[in-house]
Each structure stands twice: as structure tokens, then as C-alpha cells.
Amino acid sequence: DNVMRSTYWMDAGRLAELRFFNLDLSQKYSFKFFASRDGGGDRTTIYTINGNSVSLNASYNTNNLVEIQNISPDENGEVVISMTAGPFASYAYLGGLIISSSNRVQETSGARIASQASVVERAEPETFGGQVLMYPNPYRTGILRIAVPSHVDDTFTLKVINMEGKAIHQENMDFQAGSDYVQLEGLESLPEGLYLVQLESEALGQQLLRLIKK
């Protein structure tokens, strides 16, 4: 299964956050988490949203998921997921995330939608080693810029990969030392969702960046 071929992971004692923007304030959301590791030991990960927590052991897991339901976005249309290793686990894992929504009972006379302006003000570029690599993220339209921490001439292979593990866009890019970034165009037609941008070269190695398409 493509979802089990790779995973995000981090060391115990650290806290990771996933921030989702521009959610509909008239909806309630459910989040299903999946993680898998072809090995034993305690690999329990704790996922938390708005004080609600669930846990999942990734060791030898092939079909178990955990879910947090009935989550309302905050006033800015955001939901933040925190992720950390369990108290006796060596690492934390996240291999897949399913998000679904449903209408909720209106407590006021009109549902409010998070404005695009508030999302743009709060959007954070993807970073690597303290240096900005990709912006804007979330991405809607126009040019996607990727800053390259390289001081030599180089040739990059860039892929955009969907959550099924399929490369849906690929191109080679020449980079000249002293340039600030490479740029990627023509992604407006991508369906909304989460993607991986893979950037690989001899000098830089391979980097994976998370891209949210709105």
C-alpha cells in the first residue's frame, strides 16, 4: 500500500504541529490518523486537537486508525493538530490523515467563512534548517517559489507527489549559484489537498516539503 511505504516521524520528547487554514466555520470536522512501521516496540503516537487526544501504536499496524470527531475551527478558520510520542515510545509517526466534514447546527443566524485575507496573513512558509524553502503555502494560484540553500551551480529534479504516492508533475531545473530561488508554475489545476514536493540534486540531496493546495 502506498500509504505504508513512507511516513513522517520524529524523536521522542518533541512536539509537532499541523495547522490547517481557511476551514468553513459552518462545518464540523473529523480527523482520522494512520501510522505504520514494519517493526516492533512501542511506537505509540498521541494526536491532540482542542484538548481531545487519541493514541495509536504504529508497530506492525496495517489497518488500525484512530479518530477525533466534531472539531470546530477557531474564529480564523483554523485547526491545529499536535503530535508527540507516547510516554514510553521512542518515536512518533504519521503516515496518513483523512479529513471529513459535516454541517453543524447553526447557533447564530449566519455561518461565517474564514476570509482569504486572514489566511494569507497567518500563512507560514515551509522551512528547512531555518531557511525558507517554499512559499506561498498554502498555495492557490500563481508562482510557487522554492528557495535553494546552495552556493554552487546545480541541476534539480522536482516532483509533485499526491497522497497516493504518484508523481503528478516532474521537471528538471537548472540553478545558478547566487540565485534566491527556483519557481514552479502551472499548479492551479491541482485538486485541493495535501501534496509532497520532492527536490533532489547532487549538492542538496533529497528534500521533501509538504504543500497544501487550496
Descriptive overview:
The chain is mainly β and 214 residues long. It is 3% helix and 49% strand. It is built from one helix and 17 strands. The strands form five sheets. It has a four-stranded antiparallel beta sheet, with no helix packed on it. The longest helix is centred in the middle third of the chain and has 7 residues. The chain is globular.
Structural class: mainly beta
Strand order of the largest sheet: 2-7-4-5
Distance between the termini: 26 Å
Poorly predicted tracts of residues: 105-132
Number of helices: 1
Judging from the principal axes of the Cα atoms, what is the shape? globular
Mean pLDDT: 78
SSE arrangement, N to C: EEEEEEEEEHEEEEEEEE
Question: What attributes characterize this protein structure?
Answer:
214 residues; mainly beta; 4-stranded antiparallel sheet; 3% helix; 49% strand; globular
Task: State the gist of this model.
The chain is mainly beta and 214 residues long.
Set down the secondary structure blueprint.
Layout: E1 8-11, E2 16-20, E3 27-34, E4 44-49, E5 52-57, E6 66-71, E7 79-85, E8 91-94, E9 96-103, H1 116-122, E10 126-128, E11 131-135, E12 144-147, E13 154-161, E14 167-175, E15 181-184, E16 193-201, E17 205-213
Antiparallel strand pairs: 1-8, 2-7, 3-6, 3-9, 4-5, 4-7, 10-11, 11-12, 12-15, 13-14, 13-16, 16-17
